[in-house]
Design brief:
The protein has 206 residues and is of the alpha+beta class. It has helices spanning 55-85, 89-119, 158-163, 187-197; strands at 49-51, 122-126, 129-134, 140-145, 149-155, 165-172, 179-186. The strands form two sheets. The chain has a four-stranded antiparallel beta sheet with strand order 1-2-3-4. A three-stranded antiparallel beta sheet has the order 5-6-7. The radius of gyration is 37 Å and the shape is elongated.
Length: 206
């Protein structure tokens, strides 16, 4: 009897037919980036009228209370001198009433004036320049064309820095409104307005 040759078992341990093409693994799906795409920052020169930063109310109140304390202290020193030097009682009473009235008026303005001033102050930036509106009793509208801007600065005092605010300073050509200040702006916003108002290369303000 002739021996029948038995096929050797496949080394891979599978029962796939001999000669079949190997199955390639599916390509791995790309891993989505975990960092979100940066949102496009809208242009500051959109022609929309905007109020000042509300943090300017607290800042102006602090400044108002400092001014009130300085003036009231000076008047109090004068009152003490009058009380010692002047023998007439009615003069002492008048001076004391004057000091109390001035101190009360300054205290009122330090606390209640900043919200009123903020309510009636706004600005608008467009491609032509910047328009600033302010004034509680007397309304003042200042229009600064971009073509007349010579250079701009952004300043920050110690109190402004502690509140994250800044003052935009615009220098223009000509005698009227040669310097225009706009305080009460968020510092980053002030920088964006400054960059927008900078004269374009090759443009000369006249």
């Amino acid at each position: 009897m002739s021996a029948v040759a038995m096929p050797e078992p496949d080394d891979t341990g599978t029962d796939s037919p001999q000669g079949a093409a190997p199955v390639e693994p599916a390509p791995a799906s790309p891993v989505a980036s975990s960092a979100p795409a940066e949102a496009s920052v809208p242009s500051i020169a959109d022609g929309v009228e905007r109020p000042l930063d509300p943090r300017s109310i607290a800042l102006n109140r602090i400044v108002g209370w400092i001014v009130t304390a300085v003036i009231s202290s000076g008047l109090l020193m004068g009152l003490l001198i009058v009380l010692v030097a002047v023998p007439l009682a009615w003069i002492k009473v008048l001076v004391a009433l004057f000091w109390a009235a001035v101190t009360a008026l300054l205290a009122w303005s330090a606390h209640f004036w900043p919200p009123l001033e903020h309510r009636y102050a706004s600005y608008k930036v467009d491609e032509q320049g910047i328009e600033i509106r302010r004034g509680v009793v007397w309304r003042v509208v200042t229009d600064v064309p971009r073509s007349r801007v010579q250079h701009t600065d952004v300043s920050q005092g110690p109190l402004e820095r502690s509140h994250g605010l800044g003052t935009l300073v615009i220098y223009t050509a000509g005698t009227d409104h040669a310097r225009v200040d706009l305080s009460g702006l968020d510092h980053a916003t002030a920088l964006r307005i400054r960059d927008h108002l900078l004269p374009l290369e090759g443009d000369d303000a006249v």
